[in-house]
Amino acid sequence: MRIATAHLFLLLAVPLWLVSARVPLLIQCAQILGLLILITLVSYWTVWILRRKVFLKLVDGDGKAVLITGCDTGFGHLLAKRLAKEGFYVFAGCLFSDGDDARELKSSPNIHVLQLNVTKEDQVELALEEVKNNLGSRVLWSVVANAGVQNSGPVEWQTMARIRSAFEVNVFGVVLVAKRFLPLLRYSRGRLVIVSSGFGRDTLPIAAIYCMTKHACISLADGLRRQYYESGVHVSTIEPWVYRWARL
Questions:
Q1: What keywords appear on the UniProt entry (predicted)?
Q2: Please, are residues 228 and 182 in contact by the beta-carbon 8 Å criterion?
């Protein structure tokens, strides 16, 4: 019993002695680590403030209008409210222009809600005419092709109608909106923004069809960027990864 107790004492005492002998060193390491973290945080916020206040020139929304598709929920809905708050006049294309989300947007004096299903040519044409008729002295400064649908699951389990539907919205809808509104952007020397996805660069096997559509969007943007460079139209892609949003 005494031998076991002695062994237990040694097992506890030796590690404690080793730790206590190195406490000053551990304290110094912790201090250095804390100082590095503090320097990193201060540097980050300093760069952020300098970038926003000195180097980043925010665009004045006065006299500028923006068309955004897919404003019922998600990125489009939030962007419409943010740009309206920043002074832009927003044409918010909604799949359900009488829905609760669209009614929320209508409460802003800087937002004009449009009925816009990007797969319907007649609705895109009507939206174009409505934008022209309500621009007033403004110019259409930007078009944000945001409308999109998800598609996941093994290809052999999906109907061709479901696969075509993903391409109709995510690809041909983008092409149609860009095609009809590019003349206005060329006049204003504005910008076309296409919301693609990080999966337009890397393919997720279970969402191969969705990834195909987003690859197509990036390719379209690359081509349009070169086509309209001389016209002064800027073409960009936004490529988010996974975000939580409300589905229609």
A1: Membrane, Oxidoreductase, Signal, Transmembrane, Transmembrane helix
A2: yes
The model's pTM: 0.77
Report the alpha-carbon distance of residue 71 to residue 143 in Å, rounded: 13
Tens-place pLDDT, residues 118-128: 999 999 999 99
Three-state DSSP class for residue 160 = helix
Task: State the fold for domain 64-238.
Answer: Rossmann fold (3.40.50)
Distance CA 217, CA 219 (A): 5
243 flagged as catalytic: no
Out of 44, 210, 228, 243, which one is annotated catalytic? 210
pLDDT in tens, 206-233: 999 999 999 999 999 999 999 999 999 9
User: What is the phi/psi pair of residue 99, to 5°?
Assistant: -75, 170
Q: List 145's β-bridge partners, or say none.
A: 194
Domain ranges of the chain: 1-57, 64-238
Q: Where are the beta strands (DSSP E) in 21-110?
A: 64-68, 89-94
